[in-house]
């Protein structure tokens, strides 16, 4: 008879890295013109040492970020210098080019001092111009924090542990922030209109509301109904020596809401047109809305589409279609950040963003090892010297062999 002894003990790694599971957040666009870009964002975490016999002589934290693009683009949508560089086998307008590249957004180091304690708490300051984390069908932005521990001597060892880090970027600091509106005007023969559209809105609000006023010659035509909806644009972009180029955007239109004006309305009345923000997937609309996003290869933006339908007694009148840009974002969670001030002044606290969010005013410290390569709102170059394949890129029209007349630049 054979006896076996089962042990419940499991082998614990000598070094374990733990980071705060909450996302790291920034406010405003990833540009140096952003007034909130001076806020220093800190990533909190711990390093646990489970081997008491091991003496580490060097402990290094590495924070790295990468952005990537992997997409098939129709040659007719690419600039002429790219199309002309294709092989003879792909001279037809239906050929596609495989765009694939990965760039480094940041690579920052921080040294920790080993004090023979079982755990070291750390606060890692992150670069201020990082684009948010995302992963779509054709692009990604991801971040990782790595701890590397090494010992010296004849039996030197090296231990490594990696943890992912999520970065979020918001465009409204708090629910109490004042959101300005943009006023638009227009005239179409017998119809004059004026619209006030908010520059941004948060998904927590649940709906988008715009104010619309109009004046119409009722002897000729009357307004029957107004269709109001949100459109999401997913635009992939890259840069070559000729400049920045945008591929045709992938447009998702969410369900429209209908507004019927009152029977007895005049030109002095203000009509509030509303449409919900789709946050829950349904059978009718399985896709939910995403917040505004901008990184080296991808831009997710939104616009409001308004279709005004008329009733005419004499002839058929075509609907008037209007489009207005809007930023759809979310509110950041309560957190603590450090702000830059004069190094000679003592640290002090002020309340910002919300009652429970405090920031400390301290002197800026720029890490010498912090190198921000193409990232944020900058556009890195894409390597076009890659194998080419023939699958079509979505539903891009390839009837024309000419490249786009002009290329859009990064906003």
Automatic annotation (TrEMBL):
Source organism, top-level taxon: Eukaryota
Pfam family for this entry, one: Arrestin_N
Region entry Disordered, spans: 392-411
Biased composition regions of type Low complexity, renumbered to the chain: 398-411
Domain Arrestin-like N-terminal: 45-164
InterPro entries named among the record's database cross-references: Arrestin-like_C, Arrestin-like_N, Ig_E-set
Protein name, per record: Arrestin-like N-terminal domain-containing protein
Biological source species: Mucor plumbeus
């Amino acid at each position: 008879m054979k006896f076996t002894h089962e042990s419940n003990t499991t082998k614990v790694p000598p070094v374990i890295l733990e980071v705060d599971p909450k996302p790291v957040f920034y406010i405003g666009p990833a540009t140096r013109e952003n007034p909130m870009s001076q806020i220093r964002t800190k990533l909190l975490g711990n390093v646990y040492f489970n081997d008491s016999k091991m003496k580490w002589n060097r402990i290094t934290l590495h924070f790295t970020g990468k952005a990537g693009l992997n997409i098939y683009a129709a040659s007719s949508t690419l600039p002429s210098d790219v199309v002309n560089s294709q092989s003879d086998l792909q001279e037809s307008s239906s050929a596609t080019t495989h765009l694939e590249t990965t760039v480094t957004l940041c690579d920052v180091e921080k040294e920790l001092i080993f004090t023979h304690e079982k755990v070291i708490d750390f606060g890692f300051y992150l670069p201020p111009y990082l684009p948010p984390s995302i992963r779509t069908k054709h692009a990604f932005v991801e971040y990782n924090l790595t701890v590397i521990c090494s010992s010296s001597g004849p039996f030197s060892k090296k231990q490594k542990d990696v943890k992912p880090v999520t970065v979020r970027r918001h465009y409204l600091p708090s629910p109490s922030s004042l959101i300005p509106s943009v006023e638009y005007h227009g005239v179409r023969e017998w119809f004059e209109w004026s619209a006030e559209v908010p520059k941004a809105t948060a998904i927590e609000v649940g709906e988008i509301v715009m104010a619309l006023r109009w004046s119409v010659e009722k002897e000729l035509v009357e307004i029957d109904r107004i269709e109001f909806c949100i459109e999401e644009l997913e635009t992939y972009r890259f840069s070559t020596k000729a400049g920045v180029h945008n591929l045709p955007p992938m447009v998702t239109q969410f369900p429209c809401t209908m507004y019927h004006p009152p029977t007895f309305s005049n030109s002095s009345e203000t009509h509030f047109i509303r449409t919900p923000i789709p946050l829950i997937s349904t059978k009718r609309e399985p896709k939910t809305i995403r917040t505004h996003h901008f990184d080296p290869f991808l831009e997710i933006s939104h616009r409001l589409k308004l279709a005004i339908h008329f009733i005419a007694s004499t002839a058929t009148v075509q609907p008037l279609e209007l489009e207005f840009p809007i930023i759809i974002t979310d509110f950041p969670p309560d957190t603590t950040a450090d702000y830059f001030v004069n190094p000679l002044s003592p640290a002090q606290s002020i309340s910002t963003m919300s009652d429970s969010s405090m920031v400390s005013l301290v002197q800026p410290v720029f890490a010498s090892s912090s190198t921000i390569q193409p990232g944020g709102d900058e556009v890195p170059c894409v390597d076009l010297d890659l194998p080419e394949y023939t699958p079509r890129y979505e539903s891009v029209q390839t009837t024309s062999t000419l490249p786009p007349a002009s290329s859009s630049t990064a906003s």
